[in-house]
């Protein structure tokens, strides 16, 4: 099952007797755990039939003892074990026995964060058989913009592809952080209005004119004046534009340009799918590929790797300032 189907079932009160939520992305785990904790029982029932514990403060003996009780004031008893990765899972014999003979009126949830549960364990297989298991995987960098668009679409909102990409690039893959920013934007922008890069600048503080996307676009067009203006802005605002983010973005961009060169089908839909970008951006990659042939693109990727090492203090030579390093890199890209 995926996150949305689980949440839909919880909303309909179609509850499983046990949930194992595990994986490296805490956002989806928290989303489902919060839904169980806050919506299954009302406030009056929670005092009698809901227990929330933390893995480091409890053990399986206590959890199973609670799970075997019957509800007093409602149809279900809810037990949420947060930070369940801190339980002593090598001592989970009692849990295994419980899973073979569960209490049907108990909803027992384990929120196992920041790592994958060992799928070879008997406990895992018993949980799969008895209830719901969800692996909450980290989103890849190139999937974040799409996730942002999907989240807003679910609320009846629209965002321009460039604005979604801008948010994804600067906020990274921390979905909780992104979600907080999305909530803020939705409060400040009318529902009928498409969210633009200007809105991102106003509400989050990311410059719509001086960012890595505008730098990539300037390079694609071989617009040296604009490219160096952006680099000067980055040098003056290093905390807002850290070198690793800029270098990483350039590396990703030119790798996709190289990939575009080798695409057998360069139609908009096919190219967008193969490059992992919104169709809106395909024209730019087509334009960039005309300005940078295969050989030059290979050279640029080599330069980017070289300057990535220099930015980390290796083979620096006479340049030590990040602004100077980036200026020289842009010069090499354009010449």
Automatic annotation (TrEMBL):
Keywords: DNA replication, DNA-directed DNA polymerase, Nucleotidyltransferase, Transferase
Catalytic activity, reaction form: DNA(n) + a 2'-deoxyribonucleoside 5'-triphosphate = DNA(n+1) + diphosphate
UniProt EC number: 2.7.7.7
GO cellular component: DNA polymerase III complex
InterPro entries associated with the record: DNA_pol3_clamp-load_cplx_C, DNA_pol3_delta-like_C, DNA_pol3_delta_N, DNA_polIII_delta, P-loop_NTPase
Keyword Transferase: yes
DNA polymerase III delta N-terminal domain segment(s): 19-135
BP GO terms, sorted: DNA-templated DNA replication
GO molecular function: DNA binding; DNA-directed DNA polymerase activity
Domain DNA polymerase III delta subunit-like C-terminal: 211-313
Domain of life: Bacteria
Pfam families: DNA_pol3_delta (PF06144), DNA_pol3_delta_C (PF21694)
Organism: Sphingobacterium lactis
Protein family: Belongs to the DNA polymerase HolA subunit family.
Name of the featured protein: DNA polymerase III subunit delta
């Amino acid at each position: 099952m995926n996150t949305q189907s689980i949440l839909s079932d919880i909303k309909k009160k179609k509850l499983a007797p046990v949930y194992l939520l595990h994986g490296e992305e805490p956002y989806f785990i928290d989303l489902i755990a919060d839904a169980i904790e806050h919506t299954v029982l009302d406030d009056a029932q929670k005092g009698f039939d809901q227990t929330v514990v933390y893995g480091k403060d409890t053990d399986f003996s206590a959890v199973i003892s609670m799970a075997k009780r019957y509800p007093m004031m409602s149809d279900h008893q809810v037990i949420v074990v947060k930070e369940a990765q801190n339980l002593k899972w090598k001592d989970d014999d009692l849990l295994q026995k419980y899973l073979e003979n569960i209490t049907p009126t108990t909803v027992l949830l384990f929120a196992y964060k920041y790592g994958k549960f060992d799928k070879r364990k008997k406990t895992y297989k018993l949980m799969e058989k008895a209830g719901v298991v969800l692996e909450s995987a980290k989103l890849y960098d190139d999937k974040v913009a799409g996730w942002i668009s999907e989240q807003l679409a679910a609320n009846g909102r629209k965002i321009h592809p460039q604005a979604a990409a801008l948010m994804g690039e600067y906020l990274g893959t921390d979905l909780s952080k992104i979600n907080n920013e999305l909530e803020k934007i939705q409060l400040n922008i009318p529902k009928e209005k498409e969210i633009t890069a200007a809105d991102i600048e106003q509400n989050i503080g990311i410059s719509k004119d001086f960012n890595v996307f505008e730098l990539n676009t300037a390079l694609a067009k071989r617009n040296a004046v604009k490219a160096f203006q952006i680099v000067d802005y980055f040098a003056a605002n290093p905390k807002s534009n850290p070198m690793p983010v800029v270098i990483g973005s350039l590396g990703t961009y030119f790798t996709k340009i190289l990939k575009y060169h080798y695409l057998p089908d360069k139609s908009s839909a096919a190219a967008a799918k193969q490059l992992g970008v919104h169709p809106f951006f395909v024209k730019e990659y087509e334009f960039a590929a005309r300005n940078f042939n295969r050989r030059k693109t290979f050279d640029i990727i080599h330069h980017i790797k070289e300057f990535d090492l220099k930015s980390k203090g290796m083979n620096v030579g006479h340049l030590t300032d990040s602004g100077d390093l980036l200026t020289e890199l842009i010069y090499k890209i354009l010449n």
